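Quick one:
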Amino acid sequence: MSIPVLLCGLEACPISNKQFNSLDFVLKGCFRKIFRTRSAEVVQNCMLIFNCMSMQECVAKRKCKFIANYVKSDNMLRLSKHCGT
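Output:
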């Protein structure tokens, strides 16, 4: 699956619940095709077995990592905001 392609840059953008639902639809569609099933229960079980998070959880995790890296960085924009220049 190309999850990184779907998630590219989403940690820096606000995302609505409707958009999360669309991303989850794509993810679950991939599981349906891989396991040749239409059952939502089978898809959910497969996602649990393979430790695959929902898109909302995945983006939240990436957002936390993005913010942590941003705070650690020597970004001039961040520094200018806090220095009042």
